[in-house]
Every structure is written in structure tokens, then in C-alpha cells.
Amino acid sequence: MIMNVTIHDIWKARKRTSQIVKKTPFLYSSVLSDVTGASVYLKLENFHETGAFKLRGAANKILSLTVDEQKRGVTTFSTGNHGLAVAYVAKQLGIRAVICISNRVPKAKVERIRRLGAEIEVFGHGQDDAEKRCYQLQEEQGLTVIKPFDDPYVIAGQGTIGLELLEDLPDLDMVVAGLSGGGLISGLGLALKSTHPGIQVIGVSMEHGAVMYESLKAGKPVILDEQETLADSLLGGIGLDNQYTFRMVQQYMDQAILVSEEEIAEGMAYIFENHRMAVEGAAAVGVAALLRKKIGKPNGNIAVVISGCNVDISAHLNAVQKYISH
Ligand SMILES: *Cc1c(COP(=O)(O)O)cnc(C)c1O
């Protein structure tokens, strides 16, 4: 069933998730403002308890399920920030969560999810197999599959970032955020443009495997091979049968930008050096785009979404070191 997501759904998401999702800090960056000539602010989604904004969408979706559905439990096939969020919300609500993974997923990632109390189901050799297993669990045991982005409740949940931005800065002119499956940009775009249609919405992806970017160019969802990238949270397809986010990103995003691996490392190093925060590659793409002056006419009040901080300390060190030795 296709429904239209509206600003009303985002307000409802805000109310529904208020017990689990805390408002995140909003920080003026004098250094980035100096570099760009605009007033640049950082929206610190790395401060969620799960380390990324995906908590918002997962909380809104799971809290929207009926009591009966909640009793049967939830499942998902992400081992990244979405999987962590689903496991965390399930634990808060005392319900069952099964995270399906392939046998290729690194042990450290699996342990973190297990520590949150979720069950791990190992199946097959790739992400597609893990996804298939989720839908089997739905059939066999009545678990609800919690999708990472292409779901109206997930999109509305991510949109609550937009409400917080407008509270802190009603005169916002532009928002810059990472773009993968498009749940984040869809929710943000809907929240901001429903309020002030003039706010510019900029999506940033990595050069290596920008599926939404290529899909928009092709006019329909496409498939790309996955490549190594520092912005690993931006990896993954958008689904050939995409129902919501492809259309919403088309409607709400004003500019799509790509950044190189070197630029992502520069963004991570810059945030570390100037703001003393270790953030993951996917969260540094907006700062990278600003630093390299890739955003058309950055002026007025700009909010950059720092989307998460789930990165191995060694991977972070490596990225920063590579950048410094350049
Ligand atoms: C998921 C994610 C994104 C991208 O969000 P989409 O809704 O998939 O476009 C950006 N940054 C981080 C840290 C993420 O986990």
C-alpha cells in the first residue's frame, strides 16, 4: 500500500518517539563559516545513543506497530546503523529483534548488535541472502521487517531532524546531508520544504557507488556494484521496486554532489581537528563538499547534518593519517 508521507506524519513521529529519541545538539561552526563565507551550523546526529540518526526512523516505525505485532517481534537485515537502531529500540520496548546477517559480516559488528540483546541469524553469503531470510521470518514467525529507508514511518522519523532544525534556526536557508537510500533526504526535504519551500536541500554521496545519484540520472532505480569506501554507511542499493524515497528525493532535493575518498578523509580530519569529534565517513561528506566548494552559492544559514559516528577507531585514525600525510 502506497501512502503519501506528509508533514503531519513527521509531527506525529516527533510525539511518538519522544521517549526514545532525544533532541540532538546544534552547533555553530565558526571555522566552517570563515571558510565558506556563510553561517554554518552542525546538526550533531552522532550524539544519539546508537551513534546515528537511524534511531529516529526505527523508533517511529516500531512504535507504530500494533501491540500484537510488537509482541511477535521485528527483524531486519542491516548490520550497520539501522540494525543497531532496531536492536536498541526493541530492547527499550522489551520486544524480540532478529538481525539477519550473511557469514561475511565482521565479528566486531555482530558483537555490538548482540550486546544490545538482539538475536543474530546467520544465513547465506551476502546481503541478498540475509534479506531473503528476513522475509522468511516474517512468513514463518510473524516478525515485522523493518526496512532501512523505503518506508513512510522511517521517512517521517528521519524528518524529525527537520523540525529540530527549524526550532533552533527558523531562518535556515540550506541543509546539507548524506544521501544513500534517501530516507534522510526525503524526511528532511519534506519537513523543511513544507514549512519554507525556499530552503535548499543538498544531498552528498561518495563517488564510489552512488546508487541514488545514478538512479536519478537514469530516471529510474539502477543497480551498481559495491566498492570500498570510507563512507560505508552510504553503501547499498535503493531497491528496484523503490516505492517512496526515489520519488521524494526527486521532488525535494535541489542538488546532488559527489565527493572522493580523499575528500571524505579530509572532512573526517577537519571535524576531528576543529571540533574534536571522531565521526564516520558517511557523516563527513557534507563538510567535505563545503570545504571543496562543491555546493552552489553557499550563503545565509547552512545546516550540515553530521549523521553518525560508528567507525572503528583504527579506521578513523587511518583516514585522518592518510589525509595528513598527503
Ligand atoms: C544511513 C546513513 C546515511 C544515509 O541515509 P539514507 O536514508 O540511507 O539516505 C547517512 N549517514 C549515516 C551515518 C547513515 O547511517
TrEMBL record:
Keywords from UniProt, A to Z, are: Lyase, Pyridoxal phosphate
Give all residue intervals belonging to the Tryptophan synthase beta chain-like PALP domain: 18-308
- Keyword Lyase among record annotations: yes
Which cofactor does the UniProt annotation name? pyridoxal 5'-phosphate
Q: Which NCBIfam families match?
A: PRK07476.1 (NF005680)
InterPro entries found in the cross-reference section: Ser/Thr_Dehydratase (IPR050147), Ser/Thr_deHydtase_PyrdxlP-BS (IPR000634), TrpB-like_PALP (IPR001926), TrpB-like_PALP_sf (IPR036052)
Provide the protein name. Hydroxyectoine utilization dehydratase EutB
Q: Carries keyword Lyase?
A: yes
Note the superkingdom of the native organism.
Bacteria
